[in-house]
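Troubleshooting entry. The earlier prediction with nicotinamide-adenine-dinucleotide gave an output that would not parse, so I re-checked the input for stray whitespace and re-submitted. Clean input:
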Amino acid sequence: MRVLVTGGAGFIGSHLVDRLIARGDQVCVLDHLSTGRIENVRQYVDHPRFTLVKDSILNADVVNRLVESCDLVFHLAAAVGVWHIVENPLAAISVNVEGTENVLRAAFRFWRKVVIASSSEVYGKSTKAPLGEDDDRVLGPTTISRWSYSSAKAIDEHFAYAYAARGLPVAILRFFNVYGPRIHENGYGTVVARFIHQALNGRPLTVHGDGRQTRCFCHVEDTVRGILLASEVEAAEGQVFNIGNDVEITMHDLALLIKRLSGSSSEVRFVAYQDYYGQRFEDTPRRVPDLRKAARILGYRPEIGLETGLARTIEWCRQHRFVEGPEARLGVEP
Ligand SMILES: NC(=O)c1ccc[n+]([C@@H]2O[C@H](COP(=O)([O-])OP(=O)(O)OC[C@H]3O[C@@H](n4cnc5c(N)ncnc54)[C@H](O)[C@@H]3O)[C@@H](O)[C@H]2O)c1
């Protein structure tokens, strides 16, 4: 198969590329390397079945050309990370709405199956647990920029349904807090990366608020299995699925677990949200995915437990230390 992965140099995208290359696919990555890293795909630079196109999903001509020359599209490129969204809402909105529209329009034009990455952020601050795909979204006011990401991803979903209604084979996946090797501190759901970085560098592990807010963390290999299943199962077309792990942990317990697993002597310190994000920030107290639909239709179930997954992630971080190498020069296609 010839597969296009937008955002394929990113955290989740590069793990997907690993699986696609391993199964014998011809893989093209479209990524302009904003939060993505060349290190994530460096092992394929000279691979005969791998191409990296360093360009933006906002470039409709490039998107058209690449979609036309593939059989299947995984659309993962996005401006991600609550911090980024809060810092630069304009870029985030245009990449996440216009970019996705470009990809879907091209997929429709050339009639290619597409799997698109949405997010648990779509649910906003809903306190319902677990969150099912048909549950209401609960958002704060538009004056709080973090909600722009949730709204952009929801618009992406609406675009996808609209194209699905016209027959386009498209599946939508809402990822819940993904972690694993290649995690990065500037990315989405940075808390795991931040705690590990702090623990490995002997700094205090900074827990926001009272630390009683919970999240459910999904190892990236489980996420990628969900992505592949969505591309293979015909009944997934026109549907949205939660992809995650439904085991809940408080941020305080997560900090203690990472401290233990990394053998760190760092203290755990509580900090006010405002000190990190500024005055106008809202957090969500809980976010638990209801995985029944993904299990029933995709046959998806997470397999990697948090301790095992965190131990592997800490090991990777220990080896890489989050120290960025000098930007590599690559013979990338213009
Ligand atoms: N990691 C998570 O916990 C999580 C949770 C929910 C949803 N998601 C979604 O999963 C997808 C992948 O996220 P990730 O965690 O791997 O983040 P990531 O930042 O590592 O990957 C995103 C990739 O998109 C690329 N990109 C950004 N803007 C682009 C543009 N205009 N043109 C081309 N490439 C561009 C980045 O360089 C990066 O490689 C995103 O759509 C994100 O919204 C991730």
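This one parsed fine. The CA atoms of residues 38 and 124 lie 32 Å apart.
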